[in-house]
Amino acid sequence: MKDDSIFKAASGFGGGIGQMNDVCGSLLGASMVLSMKFGRGLEEIEDQEKVKSSYLPVARLYKWFEKEFGSPTCRGIRTSMAGGVFYDTKIPWQKEMADEAGLQAMCAELVAKTAAHTAEILWDAE
Q1: Distances from the Cα of 122 to the Cα of 71, 81, 113, angstroms
Q2: Measured between alpha carbons, how far is 63 from 67 in angstroms, rounded to an integer?
Q3: C-alpha angle with apex 20: 12 to 113, nearest 5 degrees?
Q4: C-beta separation of 24 from 74 below 8 A
Q5: Strand partners, 23
Q6: What's the alpha-carbon Rg for the chain, to the nearest Å?
Q7: Which of 2, 12, 16, 73 is within CB 3.0–4.6 Å of 21 for a Cys-Cys bond?
Q8: Has residue 1 got a pLDDT over 70?
Q9: Contact status, residue 74 vs residue 25, Cβ threshold 8 Å
């Protein structure tokens, strides 16, 4: 996408929303993309059916994500990826341990899988 405002709007999603280790940013970003395709625009603000049309693809993405990665939260996913240990990357020595465990590469793979699955949902809708 070439719209800088969308890119900016998603900037705070990293680390489970502002590094709070809550809902995974890739799940949120993919939900935004699906909502852009299936949701309502300003000209349809009163159309409740149109907004509801975005719920099904986003819910399907959510359930796929939960099944694929075991949790919708950054904390749950990263704990699982690190063999049951949660590393708080805001703490320097824990960030070092997370880096040694390869968490950044694992997260990048998760983002890629989520983007690919989102593309499949979009492709199937055509």
Answers
A1: 23, 28, 14
A2: 6
A3: 65
A4: yes
A5: 73
A6: 16
A7: 16
A8: no
A9: yes
pTM for this predicted structure: 0.91
Q: Phi and psi dihedrals of 62, rounded to 5?
A: -60, -50
pLDDT tens profile 27-53? 999 999 999 999 988 899 898 888 888
User: How big, in percent rounded to 5, are the helix, strand and coil portions of the chain?
Assistant: 70, 0, 30
Give the rounded distance of the alpha carbon of 116 from its chain centre.
12
Give the Cα separation of 27 and 15 in Å (integer): 12
Distances (CA, A) of 39 to 6, 8, 36, 47: 15, 20, 6, 10
Question: CA 30, CA 52: separation in Å to the nearest integer?
Answer: 17
How many CB atoms lie under 10 A from the CB of residue 70?
Answer: 13
For tokens 């590393």, name the residue: 87
Q: Residues near 18 by Cβ (< 8 Å), separated by ≥ 6?
A: 12
Alpha-carbon distances, residue 26 vs 10, 52, 92 (angstroms): 9, 22, 24
